[in-house]
C-alpha cells in the first residue's frame, strides 16, 4: 500500500479539508488529535483472578476467586459473584431492587459467555426472576439458542424451577413514583403537597451515584476465561427495551485464546459499535487490555454524530466504561469520559482497585 493509500493519511487529509472548508474554524473534535490519557498502566496478576466494574464489583470478584481457589469452575465463580448484586436490594441497577421501566415493572437483562467453547446464553426483558444470570447460563447449556426475551424467557425460567417473585422494592418504587409525579405539569399525577412528605431525596443524585450494571470476567489457573454481565437496565426505560448487557459482542465477549471484556454505561453506544468484541479483537492483534479499551472509546467517539448525543465540542455527552483481561493475567480498563472510574480485581493476594484510563476530560 502506498503512503497516499494509507487509511490514516486519508483520514488526516479529510479532517484538514473539513477545517479549511469552514474558513479555518476548528471543527475537529478535541479527542481526534489528543493522545490517550492514561491514569494507570496495565497490571498483571496470577490466576485465578476476576475483574469487575468498580462501583459494585468487589463482592463479586472476591466470591469468584474464592470459588476458583477451592477448585470450582470459573463460570460458577463469576456467576455466583454477580448473584450477590442480583440479590442486593440496595443496588438499584441490578436484579432485585432495580429501578423499573416507565410502567413500574422491573425487567432484567443478562448474558454469559464461555470463552473455552465460544458458547453464550442471554435473557432480555425478563420479569419476576431474581437471578437472570443463572437463566442465561441455562439458555447456553440447555437450548440450541443464544437469546430468549420477555415471556419466552420467563416460561423457560419457570420450566427450570425458578421461583417468581416481586422484584420491585419500596425504595425503587418510590424512585419510580417520584419520576412519574414530576415528569410533567400537564398530567394527572401530583407530588406530595408538603415537600417534607417526599422522603426520596434527589433523584439525580441517586442516579449519579449508581453507574449501573455489573460485569465480571474470570481467568482460572488452567487458562479458562468466562464472562457475565447482568443489569436492570436504563432507569424508567420503555417497556421491552434491551440494552447491550445481554448481547454477545456488545455487553461482553470472551475467548480463551485471547481474553475477555465487558462494559457498563450507555448500552446503545455499545450495541452500535460491538465494543466488547472490538476490545478482544484489539487484544488479539497485540494491544494491552487498557489500550484495547481506549480503542473502543475512540470508536464510539468517532461514530457518535447525532446532535443530541454530542456537546459543544463535538464530543459524546455520555459515558461508557470498559473492563478487560487477557490470557496472561494482564488487566486494564478505560472510560469514554473522565469520572474517576475504576475496576475491581481479585487474585490470591486479595482485592485491588485499578483506575480507568480515559479518552475525554
Task: Write the topology of this structure.
Layout: H1 7-21, H2 30-33, E1 43-44, E2 49-53, H3 58-69, H4 74-86, E3 108-114, E4 119-126, H5 132-142, E5 147-149, H6 150-159, H7 170-182, H8 203-209, E6 214-219, E7 225-231, E8 252-255, E9 259-265, H9 267-273, H10 275-284, H11 289-303, E10 320-326, E11 330-337, E12 342-347, E13 350-355, E14 357-360
Parallel strand pairs: 4-5, 11-14
Antiparallel strand pairs: 1-11, 2-6, 2-12, 3-4, 3-7, 6-7, 8-9, 9-10, 10-11, 12-13
Helix pairs in contact: 3-4, 9-11, 10-11
Could you characterize what this model shows?
The chain has 361 residues and is an alpha+beta fold. The protein has a single domain, classed as (Glycosyl)asparaginase (Glutamine Phosphoribosylpyrophosphate, subunit 1, domain 1, 4-Layer Sandwich). The protein is built from eleven helices and 14 strands. Helix 10 crosses helix 11. The radius of gyration is 21 Å and the shape is globular.
Amino acid at each position: 500500500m502506498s503512503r497516499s493509500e494509507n487509511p490514516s493519511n486519508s483520514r488526516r487529509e479529510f479532517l484538514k479539508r473539513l477545517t479549511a472548508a469552514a474558513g479555518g474554524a476548528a471543527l475537529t473534535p478535541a479527542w481526534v488529535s489528543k493522545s490517550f490519557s492514561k491514569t494507570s498502566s496495565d497490571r498483571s496478576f496470577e490466576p485465578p483472578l476476576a475483574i469487575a466494574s468498580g462501583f459494585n464489583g468487589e463482592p463479586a470478584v472476591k466470591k469468584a476467586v474464592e470459588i476458583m481457589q477451592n477448585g470450582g469452575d470459573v463460570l460458577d465463580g463469576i456467576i455466583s459473584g454477580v448473584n450477590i448484586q442480583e440479590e442486593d436490594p440496595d443496588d438499584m441497577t441490578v436484579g432485585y431492587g432495580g429501578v423499573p421501566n416507565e410502567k413500574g415493572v422491573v425487567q432484567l437483562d443478562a448474558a454469559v459467555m464461555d470463552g473455552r467453547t465460544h458458547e453464550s446464553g442471554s435473557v432480555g426483558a425478563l420479569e419476576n426472576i431474581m437471578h437472570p444470570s443463572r437463566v442465561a447460563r441455562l439458555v447456553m447449556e440447555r437450548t440450541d439458542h443464544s437469546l430468549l426475551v420477555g415471556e419466552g424467557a420467563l416460561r423457560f425460567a419457570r420450566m427450570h424451577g425458578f421461583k417468581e417473585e416481586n422484584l420491585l422494592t419500596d425504595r425503587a418504587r418510590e424512585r419510580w413514583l417520584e419520576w412519574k409525579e414530576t415528569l410533567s405539569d400537564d398530567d394527572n399525577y401530583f407530588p406530595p403537597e408538603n415537600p417534607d412528605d417526599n422522603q426520596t431525596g434527589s433523584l439525580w443524585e441517586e442516579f449519579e451515584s449508581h453507574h449501573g450494571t455489573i460485569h465480571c470476567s474470570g481467568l482460572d489457573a488452567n487458562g479458562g476465561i468466562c464472562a457475565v454481565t447482568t443489569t436492570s437496565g436504563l432507569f424508567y426505560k420503555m417497556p421491552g427495551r434491551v440494552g447491550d448487557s445481554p448481547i454477545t459482542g456488545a455487553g461482553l465477549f470472551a475467548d480463551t485464546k485471547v481474553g475477555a471484556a465487558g462494559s457498563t454505561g450507555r448500552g446503545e453506544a455499545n450495541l452500535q459499535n460491538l465494543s466488547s468484541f472490538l476490545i478482544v479483537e484489539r487484544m488479539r492483534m497485540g494491544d494491552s487490555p487498557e489500550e484495547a479499551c481506549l480503542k473502543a472509546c475512540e470508536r464510539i467517539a468517532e461514530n457518535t454524530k447525532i446532535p443530541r448525543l454530542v456537546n459543544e465540542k463535538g464530543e459524546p455527552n455520555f459515558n461508557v466504561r470498559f473492563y478487560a483481561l487477557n490470557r496472561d493475567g494482564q488487566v486494564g480498563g478505560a472510560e469514554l469520559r473522565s469520572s474517576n472510574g475504576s475496576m475491581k480485581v481479585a487474585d490470591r493476594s486479595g482485592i485491588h482497585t485499578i483506575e480507568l484510563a480515559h479518552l475525554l476530560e
